[in-house]
Amino acid sequence: MPELGDPAHRPLNNGSSDVGDVSWITPTVQILSSAVAFGTPWHTWQYVAQGKLPAAHKALSHAATVIAATGLDLITQPELLAAARAEHTANTAATPYVCPIPKDLLAPPVVRAAAH
């Protein structure tokens, strides 16, 4: 059984996000806002089609308002950002970020297809 502080103890999340690596280096937040009907499967045309509905626009507008208000709070109340950084440091101290990409790995060159 992994112990607290062991990277294997980290909770498993069945999703992924492009902020995953960043969140181990600096405090991050995300907002989830319901923009489609409950039960709509992800990555389907039904999900995409609902993105044009007024309910989706309302959800995104609400999310944008929350994000803006959070940013304003962090700018006008620097102690909030300091507290977030302190909490983040405490939470990640035992499990520091380890990049999964080897340092000596080079990306392959981009090869363009020949024009016909």
TrEMBL record:
Residues 1-21 are annotated as: Disordered. It comes from the Bacteria. PANTHER family: PEPTIDASE M20, XAA-ARG DIPEPTIDASE. This is Uncharacterized protein.
